[in-house]
Amino acid sequence: MAEESPILAVEGVSLRFGGVRALTDVSFTVRPGEIFSIIGPNGAGKTSMVNCVSGRYRPTEGVVRFGGQDITRLGPNRRAGLGIGRTFQNLALFGHMSVLDNIMVGRHHLLKAGFLRGMLYWIGGAQTEELAHRREVEEIIDFLEIQPVRKAIAGTLPYGLRKRVELARAIALKPRLILLDEPMAGMNLEEKEDMARFITDLNEEWGMTVLMIEHDMGVVMDISHRVMVLDFGRKIAEGSPEAVMAHPEVKRAYLGKDLAEPEPAAA
């Protein structure tokens, strides 16, 4: 049986900002239904790579394909409409809005009711459509266990809960591919365990393909199917978590020394 076509294919992507090369000739694929993690030291180009996938940055060279379609020149909104959702390393919630309203914002690409139907809200189809969307949002709220804060103002919540709300908003888009930029940054151990469980359930029960940046190597090893390592904007390894973490180039990048050199003999 032929291998299933990748949902995401990044082909020879390079990214420059003036004279600074953020990415150099990076290629990889993400298969449908997997959790694919990108790791690397600070400044390795991880977020730049995700921004090239989401449409926030346009590569200087190379091609990004989603579902076989070339999306390299499409903006973030067009990509979201195709089924690419994302969270951000730095929270991007509407702090003055309720949790429920923040999540509803994630549904805007799916709304079909236009301006005239909106004016005729009570006699047209817009009311029925909004109710259907609210039911799906409530399902997401239940899934992420944030029922007690559903009416709270997002900006007043503890950091860990705000990270869940941002994930909920990304899920609300019903993406085929969800991009998670350090979803566990700044969390305590219990919050990390909860987030890892939610990501695994999204993948296994909801069928979402996940592309994740994460610094917590324990989480990466536990939940990823495959891992790619970037260092100074270049890919230095890709494969199973176990194979990648045993790779000498990865050890060198993280430990900052040439592991091929023998340790000096004791005096």
UniProtKB/TrEMBL annotation:
InterPro entries: AAA+_ATPase, ABC_AA/LPS_Transport, ABC_transporter-like_ATP-bd, BCA_ABC_TP_C, P-loop_NTPase. Gene3D superfamilies: P-loop containing nucleotide triphosphate hydrolases. GO terms for molecular function: ATP binding. The keyword Phosphoprotein does not apply. Keywords: ATP-binding, Nucleotide-binding, Transport. This is ABC transporter ATP-binding protein. Transmembrane segments: none annotated. Residues 8-257 form the ABC transporter domain. The lineage of its organism: Bacteria, Pseudomonadati, Pseudomonadota, Alphaproteobacteria, Acetobacterales. Pfam families: ABC_tran, BCA_ABC_TP_C.
